[in-house]
């Protein structure tokens, strides 16, 4: 038995919401024995080596929970048989991809079966079709490693250790400005539904499920394989991370706005991921910006030159391939600390962008005394072209069309702490702070309702933010594919639709 830190009461609201759903049985060790009889090689009890590894192998410490046992399927068939068992016995379970969500219990569970997907890790290239079929246990690094040698790439995520959860959420890739979101570059989902059947969802078959999964998270089934569109590369890209001192931040802020409204639009081969990192220990902020040009050039093109038109302390810009870049980026985001993420959307606006960072900087200084306090602010563009790509590729459920012909910034706020015991002091206040920034954006007429699921906080209504029409659409798809709400009642973790009927 692993003691649960009392500070996990932080998620009281979440747990209360979850409790409402629980007329279901919590799996007991006997249930896990039954599961182990069905899958002798794939089930690990509490306190075994495998259980310990799987229960701790998460980016955020908020995900380390207390599952009754761990089930590691290595085939679609096993997932289907297991889902049938879970439903039959009303056992709760959690589906884990790369374990990079910070929402408590998004991909783990207290009392229930933890089902990591990582043994489903195949990567198969279909050169003729221009597609890559992967098991949903792969990580982004596996995808780049499979495609780089063939001068191909896929539109997924940018960091080596992130998993396929983003393929049911949204997904910013290096090529987002040109090709659109990850979900809009998926050709097929293979899904295990609540009744244990395995179906394919794509433009031609189960097309409503296809659209629902593009934003629907774990609410429709367990996705076992995904077929991703691939595109040709020029064999290399030019990119790396540029680090700026505090004195260069005003320049970086100006570049962010210019990137959102000009650079990313006039040249869609650009990609920049600017980040401000405030370190409470030193009371210092640095900015570090992955800057990428998705073509085989030998230096930054003119359109991105502004990023090096100020003093910077360090740069890893060079000609390279995606896998190498994904490894470098991930190195700055180690596993195991206490993490919380929040996000909202606003129309690109230079003053808003500047004021939001200034306010966050002020707010963070109030918590400087908290061990390990680190605040990260990122602002990622969703250009009109990205939204058009979504519609052109069959549509998703995000409701972004309402942004019209203006760039949206996805404004991200991340907090890191050393100790869970400090969470109750900092995290609710962090929620308040982000709401105050939404209000600031509202007061200036710049707020947009979209909350990107993949960066959302546990109490942010990501799916409701898609708007009433999309919520109605998702509800209809629920009635058809998940009529007993199995993926809400038995899979309580992560973002859920606003109402069960
Ligand atoms: C360091 C870091 C870098 C990141 N970089 C990027 C980036 O470049 N681009 C970007 O868009 N996002 C990025 N993200 C955000 C990322 O998209 C989300 O954290 C996403 O949820 C990660 O998916 P996962 O599989 O790793 O996480 P998990 O926590 O394992 O899963 C997330 C959710 O998806 C569900 N899920 C996972 N697999 C399945 C499945 N097979 N079937 C059904 N449901 C499933 C889980 O139940 C869970 O609720 C990053 C996050 C971090 C921490
Ligand atoms: C990949 O899958 C194979 C076969 O299921 C398994 O043996 C291996 O451990 C998996 N790799 C990872 C990293 O899980
Ligand atoms: C990839 O591109 C590089 C540079 O153009 C070329 O030298 C190499 O042969 C290509 N490799 C493949 C597998 O096409
Ligand atoms: C913050 O600064 C301290 C002291 O220099 C350092 O040890 C720590 O690694 C920094 N934290 C991060 C996340 O960079
Ligand atoms: C932290 O840094 C800010 C400037 O960025 C400064 O105004 C403030 O006084 C510093 N706080 C402490 C406690 O040194
Ligand atoms: C919090 O973390 C620090 C290390 O950063 C450690 O020294 C301290 O003991 C921790 N406090 C608690 C209450 O866990
Ligand atoms: C959107 O804006 C771009 C430039 O800002 C313009 O070229 C394009 O025609 C506009 N599209 C629509 C549909 O208004």
TrEMBL record:
UniProt keyword annotation of Oxidoreductase present: yes
Ranges where the FAD-binding PCMH-type domain occurs: 63-233
Signal peptide segment: 1-19
Gene3D superfamilies: 3.30.465.10
An annotated Gene Ontology molecular function: oxidoreductase activity
Keyword tRNA processing: no
Pfam families with a match to the protein in the record: FAD_binding_4
InterPro entries registered for this protein in UniProt: FAD-bd_PCMH (IPR016166), FAD-bd_PCMH-like_sf (IPR036318), FAD-bd_PCMH_sub2 (IPR016169), FAD-linked_Oxidoreductase (IPR050416), Oxid_FAD_bind_N (IPR006094)
Keywords associated with the record: FAD, Flavoprotein, Oxidoreductase, Signal
Family of the protein in this entry: Belongs to the oxygen-dependent FAD-linked oxidoreductase family.
Name by which UniProt lists this protein: FAD-binding domain-containing protein
Source organism (scientific name): Trichocladium antarcticum
